[in-house]
Amino acid sequence: MARYEIFVTYKQGIFDPPGATAERALASLGYDEVESVKIGKYIRLEVADGPNELARVAEMCDKLLANPVIEEYRIVETEGAAR
Amino acid sequence: MARYEIFVTYKQGIFDPPGATAERALASLGYDEVESVKIGKYIRLEVADGPNELARVAEMCDKLLANPVIEEYRIVETEGAAR
Amino acid sequence: MRDDLTAELAPQLAVELGLKLAEFGKIVEILGRTPTVTELYMYSLMWSEHCSYKHSKKALRMFPTTGPYVLQGPGENAGVISVGDGWAVAFKMESHNHPSAIEPYQGAATGVGGIIRDIFTMGARPIASLNSLRFGTLDKARQRYLFEGAVAGIGGYGNCIGVPTVGGEVYFDAAYEGNCLINAMSIGIMREENLTSAVASGAGNLVLLVGSTTGRDGIGGASTLASQEFDEKAEDKRPSVQVGDPFEEKLLIEACLELLDAKLLVGLGDLGAAGLTSSASEMASRGGVGLDIDVTKIPARETGMKPFEFMVSESQERMLAVVTPENLAASQAVCEKWGLRSTVIGTVTDTRRFVVREGDEIVADMPADTLASDAPVYDPAMTRPAYLDEAQAFDPSTLVHPETPGALGDALLRVLASPNVCSRAWIYRQYDQQVMLNTLVLPGGDAAVIRIAGTKRAIAVSSDCNGRYCYLDPYVGAQIAFAEAARNVACAGGRPAAITDCLNFGSPEKPEVFWTFHESVRGMSDACRAFEVPVISGNVSFYNESFGQPIYPTPTVGLVGVLQDASKRMTMHFKQAGDVIVLLGETADELGGSEYLSTVHGVIAGAPPAIDVAEEREIHEALLAAIEAGLVRSAHDCSEGGVAVTLAEAAIAGGLGATVALDDDLAPASSLFSETQGRIVVTCAEADAEALTDLFVSRGVPFSVIGEVGGERLVIEDKVDLAVAALVAAWGPTLEALVSGDIPQPEELVEG
Amino acid sequence: MTFGVVRFPGSNCEQDIVIACRYLGIDVDYVWHGDTDLSGFDAVVLPGGFSYGDYIRTGAVARFSPVMGEVVRFAERGGPVLGVCNGFQILTEAHMLPGAMLRNRGLKFICETVPLRVEHNICPWVDLPEGTVVRIPINHNEGNFTADPETLARLDANGQIVVRYCEPDGTRAPGGSAPNGAADDIAGICSERGNVFGLMPHPERVCDPEASGTDGQPFFTSIVAHMAGV
Ligand SMILES: Nc1ncnc2c1ncn2[C@@H]1O[C@H](COP(=O)(O)OP(=O)(O)O)[C@@H](O)[C@H]1O
Ligand SMILES: [Mg+2]
Predict the structure, then answer these.
(1) C674 C-alpha to center of ligand 1: Å?
(2) Ligand whose nearest atom lies closest to the CA of C128
(3) Which strand (E) or helix (H) includes residue C21?
(4) Which chain D residue lies closest to B19 (C-alpha atoms)?
(5) Which chains, if any, share at least 3 CB pairs under 8 A with chain C?
(6) What does the pLDDT look like over B11-58, one tens digit per residue?
(7) Is D112 a catalytic residue?
(8) For position C216, what pLDDT does the model report?
């Protein structure tokens, strides 16, 4: 049993409207130190141990969890225990 | 200049519609090893160095980036360099 | 002046950018020198098919484009007609096929955003949208993904900006598998005096860029994509996909309409395909002026952008305004109020030259007209496709058709359950259909009806095109596309006022494809003339092919009709037991290209139904007279699936059965499923039956009294006897079931 | 009595509220999100739409508009506040109403007219007999109301649940009748004092019989009668 954390964000050069909005909102709340905000998806998978897990998780991302056309993702395996 | 990565997820016991749907979809795609899927937000902040940065980032989460009623979050400071 | 392109490299780049060498030669001739990189990019986009219509221009001259109430015909961002009391309606349809085939949600969403900008650029407030969709069959996962994504994108964008989506159409056919069609139509309303033009004038006036920042996204997007056919290369073009920001667009609508109301602008243009290059050069060319633009002034989304990238970027949600220096402050204040960026990026000059500079250095300098107006115009070769003779020669009567009520009933259920006929509720349930409170007739019937607030009037709108008919006979098919749109509008009580169109075809460089294009335009033009209805706007989408296979010719018609009295609007569902059912028109033995033939026999062939547009118009006029006289309780036209499906849909919608006898002497299957044009199922109160039939007699239109509304079953004498509940069960769930991937197994569909 | 309808960037039903009020003979005017003066208004309406594009979370940014501080004070003084759809979402984000919104079960935007049952409630915004069934359009992507069990129980006990999704005959399906999956079939709730009312359905869309229907009228007229009464 392993846990995979996946971080999905828009590719370089693709506009991120939620991020841009958060940027403006934080500024108007007085957080002038914020230089940029990107908002993407955080996905946490609990996966039963098996052969080439990582490869299969990547496959899941390409097929369903991310949109390879406009998004890129990063997969990190963390301890099942991790909070 | 520091980078903060924020992971927002629903609290225990709060139903996660996208996660539940992804769970079903992955199963129907034959990924039976997947035991659970949680889908939340991944937020990346670039913040200019200043006093009590972390505290202020937490404040931004409580106020705007997460909804304490249903969501919890985790903040990780990563190197501005990190990908 | 920067020269960053050697005489050797220039032609190479030109070809890479999709220009023909002859076209490159013409550019060198115009400039009298080797173009710069920026110039070459700008010409290549403006002279692309998508922007220049170089293959379609001549054929489009066949369209009638004038009429007593036409305020603006083709040529501006949208056409405009007067609808009385000083109110005007602007509308246009446009394709976003290629971007959507790559990324359905964003492709469809930005398609909606683009057509909406075309409308408020004219000074009109968008009040309704329609969408015309084509996909492959939903048994393919990719097609389900495209369909689900496109519908979500259309809803996601339209719902957010608060413009109701009130209608549309969708067909599923293998012909669209490699190249789906996403055509979006938008309709806006304005006071006549607010009609605006996308024009730049007045040397010394300022060029103001309003809205979103400019990034590399969409470089060569729509225009490049839409100007070449699909193949493996499509993969490389993926980064040109853009993400829409409907929130920014909503702010743009409010700010621009406020700017125009306050008469603060000289001209207003939207940035669509080919971005700044296209809107700026068109505005300059219309005004007979020059422009001087400094790309370093443009708010950039990314660092290190090159001048040509600024000029051709297709970043969404941007508008270009021309203002006098006196009005600059007031104009920027309005933008500020709405939280919009606005930046002076250049000035209007009297040189008639389009000058682009990066700071002090000039990177492009060309005669402004030549970008918009001097694109080459071609006379493509045409030949009648070889497949036509064989396809049309097919005789449906050589097939074995169901005869018994049991078998005929099963056939009806199968046709009702067909993705091309079944309920569309799964689609429009995802669209806000009511915001603005003007939608008097919601999607689900023939045409939607939108009231013109503050008047007694309303408009009825429908978009239609049966690609199968066009494949089997483009001339007839295009006439039918018009006729069906007009018929749908008439069934709602509307008189056709004008149309827009979106002509979706394969490569115009293929003589057989171009012939079908030419025939379609001829057919649509003849139908328009017969109805005295002008074409006031439209869009051509060529290169809809995948791996060399063109789609069906798909000339979609978007028709807007007017109701002088909104309270006289008509709906399609059976209203009351005891009402008399009349069939306007006569059924002929015309199963060619029918939904029945395709669903029950798996055959797409034969001659499509014949059409006589003059007769068609008389039938519509007779119906409209009856509706205006208050004699009609419901009206629903016959289209895919024939009179059997029309009766079933009226029964389903009304929750009422009917008992009918069809008095034609055709074989039962033809009688039920023949798709003969010019037919409308009309019901009236028993007390009005005589007056109604008298009216039809006096107008000399063919009709027959075929039965009576009532009960819980649809009974068609000797042919069909089914519970309305069974009709609902067949017609209702198809789309949802298909999308959710649980595909009905073939054996569930075989005749019982 | 005058209604003030707040215009946030991205609101798109504010005009519909104004049209409905005018149709019902209620004085009404817009309030800009940047303004902080509500004097002259007897009731405040937060309209539907997509304030700030619904980015981050629905209502999350609008909640910080300058006008909202004043809306909170207005409510604390007992002033009647109505939030429709996005307005309801803003009220929960501002913690003027309990709970929060999740995406619809099924992850699809839903636009359709649904039956609602008026519950026994303390809300002056809806003066209709308990058990009355009205048909009102819903039009949202995030109307899946959620709250912890204690809160749900408290809402129920206090008569703060004003309208629930139901079947056409007013009953509730065992599996729930909410098309969006809302907890306890909740379509609309009010504050403990009753003066703050949020609902996902759009009553303003069914106030004009010429165009649609009349089922939405009581959601505007009740409060007028109530205020006249006191
Ligand atoms: N893509 C769509 N978006 C919105 N409404 C649609 C769409 N497709 C079909 N509809 C609606 O469903 C109803 C039936 O469509 P259709 O079968 O094309 O009608 P008709 O045969 O009269 O042209 C119409 O009200 C139409 O507007
Ligand atoms: Mg029809």
Answers:
(1) 20
(2) 1
(3) helix C21-31
(4) D107
(5) A, D
(6) 998 999 999 999 999 998 899 999 999 999 999 999 999 988 999 999
(7) no
(8) 85
Look at strands D43-46 and C342-349 and give their pairing. Answer: unpaired
Instruction: State the virtual CA torsion across C452, C458, C459, C460 in degrees, nearest 10.
Output: 140
Q: Which residues on D lie below 8 Å from C248 (Cβ)?
A: 53
Residues of A in contact with C243 (CB under 8 A): 10, 14-17, 70
Interhelix angle C724-731/C642-654, nearest 10 degrees: 100
Residues of C that are catalytic: 50, 96
- Three-state SS at D162: strand
Residue D84 near residue D204, CB atoms below 8 Å: yes
Q: Which residues 6+ apart lie within 8 Å of C747 measured at CB?
A: none
Q: What is the 3-state secondary structure (H, E, C) of D19-86?
A: HHHHHCCCEEEEEECCCCCCCCCCEEEECCECHHHHCCCCCCCHHHCHHHHHHHHHHHCCCCEEEECH
Judging by beta carbons within 10 Å of its beta carbon (0-12, 13-18, 19+), is residue C233 exposed, middle or buried? exposed
For residues C655 and C713, is the Cβ–Cβ distance under 8 A?
no
D109 chain-C contacts, CB cut-off 8 A? 152, 155-156, 159, 430-432
- Provide the edge-to-edge strand list for the sheet that holds C290-294: C267-270, C318-323, C206-211, C342-349, C290-294, C353-358, C361-367
The stretches in chain C having pLDDT less than 50 are 222-223, 225, 230-239, 744-752
Give the number of C-alpha atoms closer than 13 A to the C-alpha of residue C131, restricted to the C-beta side. 33
| Mean per-residue pLDDT, D134-155 | 97
CA–CA gap between residue D92 and residue D59 (Å, rounded): 8
**Which of B23, B34, B72, B78 to mutate against chain A (most A CBs within 10 Å)?**
B34
Min Cα–Cα distance to chain C from D20, Å: 9
* Window D:55-74, CB contacts with B under 8 Å: 56-57, 60-61, 64
What distance in Å separates the CA atoms of residue C210 and residue C270, rounded to the nearest whole number? Answer: 10
Q: Chain A partners of D53 at a C-beta cutoff of 8 Å?
A: 17-18, 21
Q: What is residue C628's DSSP assignment?
A: H
3-state secondary structure of B48: coil
Nearest to C492, CA basis, from C443, C454, C535 = C443
Give CA separation, D223 vs B68, C242, D41, D190, D220, in Å. Answer: 32, 46, 13, 13, 6
**Dist. CA D115–CA D119, nearest whole Å:** 13
Distances (CA, A) of D151 to D148, D154, D188: 5, 5, 14
- Closest residue in D to A26 (Cα) is D61
D204 noted as active-site residue: yes
Helix axes C613-628, C689-699, angle to 10 degrees: 150
- Would you state the pLDDT for residue B82? 40
DSSP C503: E
B43 forms bridges with which residues in the sheet?
A39, B6
User: Are the Cβ atoms of D110 and C451 closer than 8 angstroms?
Assistant: no
What residue has token string 């700044």? C276
The string of pLDDT tens digits covering residues C706-724 is 999 999 999 999 999 999 9
Hunting for tokens 């079944």 — which residue is that?
C422
- Taking the centre of ligand 2 as the mean of its atom positions, its distance from the CA of residue C704, in whole angstroms, is 19
Nearest Cα residue in chain A from D58: A18
| CB contact B20 to A (< 8 Å) | no
Largest pairwise CA distance in chain B? 50
Are B18 and D99 in contact (CB < 8 Å)? no
**Best residue for ligand 1 mutational test, from C181, C420, C428 (most atoms within 8 Å of Cβ):** C428
Q: Determine the angle formed by the axes of helices C141-161 and C104-121, rounding to 10 degrees.
A: 30
Question: Is the model's pTM score more than 0.90?
Answer: yes
Contact flag D56-A21 (C-beta cutoff 8 Å):
yes
Q: Strand C658-660 and strand C713-716: pairing? A: parallel
